Amino acid sequence: MFTGIILEVGKISSVKDITEGKEFIINCPKIIKEIEVKDSIAINGTCLTAIELQKDSFKAQAVHITLEKTSLGNLQENSQVNLELALRPIDRMGGHFVQGHVNTMATITEIETIGSNWNFSFQIDQKYSKYIVKEGSISIDGTSLTISDHNDKKNIFKVTIIPHTLENTIFGQYTVGLKVNIEFDMLFKYLESLNH
Predict the structure, then answer these.
(1) Which residues, at least 6 apart from 146, have a Cβ–Cβ distance to it below 8 Å?
(2) Beta partners for 15?
(3) What is the rounded CA–CA span in Å between residue 5 and residue 105?
(4) How many Cα atoms within 13 Å fall on the side-chain side of residue 187?
(5) What pLDDT, on a 0 to 100 scale, did the predictor assign at position 75?
(6) If 0-12 CB within 10 Å is exposed, 13-18 middle and 19+ buried, where does residue 68 land?
(7) Cα gap 47→98, rounded to integer Å
(8) Nearest to 87 by CA among 143, 137, 32, 40
(9) What phi, psi does 26 have (nearest 5°)?
(10) Distance of CA 76 to CAs 15, 24, 49, 54, Å?
(11) Do residues 106 and 180 touch, judged by C-beta distance below 8 A?
(12) If we measure between CA atoms, which residue out of 7, 15, 13, 12 comes closest to residue 33?
């Protein structure tokens, strides 16, 4: 379980194709001392397991289904990624409950500035539009955010990013057309499950 509060922007130092999928070595000098083998780490919002540690980095493996369902398959050497360690019972709950289970991907359709803030618009498959609620929570590449607007007819939603978030996540690298990992608020998913 995670909160969607990014602890470090890490850098991919190695990507290796393996029979089971891909292995990534991720450089993260700021948080490496807090990581142990078998720890769950959210990488762009996707929960993976640290399988090996080095001085300033850890190794994680993504299986084929994860690579197909998320944007992790697009990562290359020197790609930057949002990193978050799993929630501990003593931690502050600064964002919202994020499981690290990516539901789908969305495409960036527009980026605009409003004063010192940034508005990012994303288009999502119509079947997921029911999970988008204005002022509701959403996780984008592992970052806990609030939906600021929603155009249901075009399946487009918008989030507003403050300078701190832009500087401390990979949002500053986003470009129109890029695909990002999306995890919807788990409460909406549970409510839908109860209604079936």
Answers:
(1) 135, 136, 137, 138, 159, 160
(2) 24
(3) 19
(4) 7
(5) 97
(6) exposed
(7) 10
(8) 40
(9) -120, 120
(10) 6, 9, 19, 19
(11) yes
(12) 7
Q: What is the mean pLDDT of each run of 10 residues along the chain (196 residues)?
A: 94 97 98 97 98 97 97 97 89 78 97 96 94 93 96 92 96 97 80 61
The set of residues, in sequence order, having a beta carbon less than 8 Å from that of 26 and lying 6+ positions away, is 10, 11, 12, 13, 43, 57, 58, 59, 60, 81, 83
- 85: amino acid identity, one letter: L
DSSP string, the chain: -B-S---EEEEEEEEEEETTEEEEEEE-TTTGGG--TT-EEEETTEEEEEEEE-SSEEEEEEEHHHHHHSGGGG--TT-EEEEEEPPPTTS---S--B-S---EEEEEEEEEEETTEEEEEEE--GGGGGG--TT-EEEETTEEEEEEEEETTTTEEEEEE-HHHHHHSGGGG--TT-EEEEEE-HHHHHHHHHT-
Which tokens hold the place of 153?
């007819």
- Alpha carbon of 69 to those of 73, 93, 105, 114: distances in Å? 9, 27, 8, 32
